[in-house]
Amino acid sequence: MVRKKLGANSSIGLKPRVMTKTALQREAQQADMARQEFLIMRASVKATEVVIPFVFYDGTNLPGGRCRIKKGEQIWLFLDKARKVGAELGVGGDKSRREWARVSVDDLMLVRGEVILPHHYEIYHFLFNKVTGFHGPLFDYSAQPTKATPAAEDSNAEADAVPYDPLNPARKTGSMPSAVPEAELEGFGDDPALTKVVDRRWYEKNKHIFPASGWAEYAPDKDLSKVQRKDTQGNAFFFS
């Protein structure tokens, strides 16, 4: 007698787990608590300062300086601080050099590595999304709380962020100077040449010439680590 092997009846689905009203409320509360904890953590990280060494670039690296900035602040604010640093240091004092302090923020661009970063992005965006350039992370800073992160009770949610002082956009009204020494902040020891402040008008005239010809503007839908880089004649760079 041949016995038939019985298989699973695919017509019988899994019975859904019955959730009581109390269980649903508990899950909703837990989800809300997790969301609130994340928002507090994110606001705290965004309030953390880093130091970004930089150079001015017009075909050659001109000594710049260091800018102290929060992870939650936007690229345009870094550029505004950088040009003021240039004014304080006298960069461009020589008539053969561009007077960087007189260049408006709109006419400046930030090139990190070989990637042009749009003005409106926060530094935190690149950290949280682990954005990479052609040769690795654009910013090698932590997206988690660090020893330089303000205490959670001192960090407000994003909706309660302190407004900018319109007379001095590089300074927030009501903000207090950080007690953390600059040398202890992330980024202090970075190579200044990694971060270039460039006059956009110079770039438009020279974007067909190396190294500007190898720069690419950041786009959230493009993975630059997988891009085959080519020059203006379509030849692949040997270091791609």
Structure, explained:
The structure is a single chain. The chain has 240 residues and is α/β, with parallel strands linked by helices. The protein has one domain (44-226). It contains four helices and eight strands. It has helices at 21-46, 75-89, 123-128, 200-206; strands spanning 49-57, 61-70, 108-112, 115-117, 164-165, 168-172, 195-199, 216-217. A six-stranded mixed sheet has the order 2-1-7-3-4-8. The N and C termini lie far apart (69 Å). Mean pLDDT is 78; it is low at 152-175.
What's the helix and strand layout?
Blueprint: H1 21-46, E1 49-57, E2 61-70, H2 75-89, E3 108-112, E4 115-117, H3 123-128, E5 164-165, E6 168-172, E7 195-199, H4 200-206, E8 216-217
Parallel strand pairs: 1-7, 4-8
Antiparallel strand pairs: 1-2, 3-4, 3-7, 5-6
The coarse silhouette is elongated
Total of domains = 1
Class from helix and strand fractions: alpha/beta
Residue stretches low in confidence (pLDDT < 50, at least 5 long) are: 152-175
**Would you list the SSEs in sequence order as H and E?**
HEEHEEHEEEHE
Helical content (DSSP H or I, runs of 4+): 10-25%
Oligomer: single chain
How large is the count of helical segments?
4
- What number is the mean pLDDT? 78
| Share of β-strand residues | 15-25%
Distance between the termini: 69 Å
Task: List the strand order in the largest sheet.
Answer: 2-1-7-3-4-8
